[in-house]
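Sample intake sheet
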Amino acid sequence: MALQGLLEAGRVAIVDTPGDRAAVIEAAARLLAGPPADAAMIGSGLAERERLASTAIGHGVAIPHARVDGLEQARGAFLRLSPPVDFGAADGEPVDLVLAMAVPQGSMQGHLELLAELAERFSDNGFREWLRQAADHGELARRLLDGARRIQA
């Protein structure tokens, strides 16, 4: 699944007072929620995964993720945080770009492939900075979704 198939503009947010890592996970779960999965179920899965090891991949990016019962298709949410939040990243940088995702319980291989694709995309410094410089939610959503479309080109 391409990044553009994972995201939609309604699941992109700029969070000006993110709080701590747990609060960011809760905010991501609310954005990811919808039939048949609810925010509490998704939040629990994201938090459980985060307890295993930090999902921060470095350069201010985290990709919290969980497999969720009842989902038929993967879904993602993007949050830009200000100020950045400590996610326990190996590089020591706090996180300001969060791409959270919920995937169907049985999609182990697809889940791993999607994580690899996302990690590759967010390893691009130019792409990260382009997202950080977006003036508002609408521009951020356009940049994120347009950037995802360019991957396919």
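Comment: The radius of gyration is 14 Å. The helical segments are 3-6, 21-32, 39-52, 108-122, 125-132, 137-152.
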